[in-house]
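Data availability (excerpt). All sequences and predicted token strings are deposited with the supplementary files. A representative entry, DUF6879 domain-containing protein, is shown inline so that the format can be inspected without opening the archive.
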Amino acid sequence: MSSIPEFAELLADTVQSAAHLEMRDAYFTNPRFEAWQDGRRVDWDDRGSWWRPYHQNIAEAVARGVHVRRVRIVSEPVTDYIAWEHYQTRANVEAGEEVRWLPRHRAWDLLVPGTDLWIFDGRLIRVHHFSGGGEWVGKELCDEPSTVSQHAAAYERIWERATPHHQYEVK
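Structure token line:
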């Protein structure tokens, strides 16, 4: 595939499902994470202060019937970044995502993809590449049916084992 559409465009073209897999314990520097580290918390009653275009895109997809899921494979004890992500996940859930968590020690016997990704309608993968320090490096798409099928099957096994967000306790 020659050009890589932005996430919002891929999601807008999605009809049934969008599945996100995250496996890093920290990502690039984020001002909201830094604010959380400084003790500042989200005012969940002030939706305008935390609702982002990403959340709107998810909400619109869910409203038209797209099942949006996210599963995070995390090390325990979790990093500060993961603790913050757990706190911030309320925004994802309010947008309509179903989120689960899988401690890395419970994933040792699963075959997992080598990097973070999205799977759209079981037909297309958007792969995310990061540096060792968690900085965004790039993205690529894959629509090769065998590869997509293998990744989708791996995602389902991870999803089945993972704990729903409202039941997962940060350790």
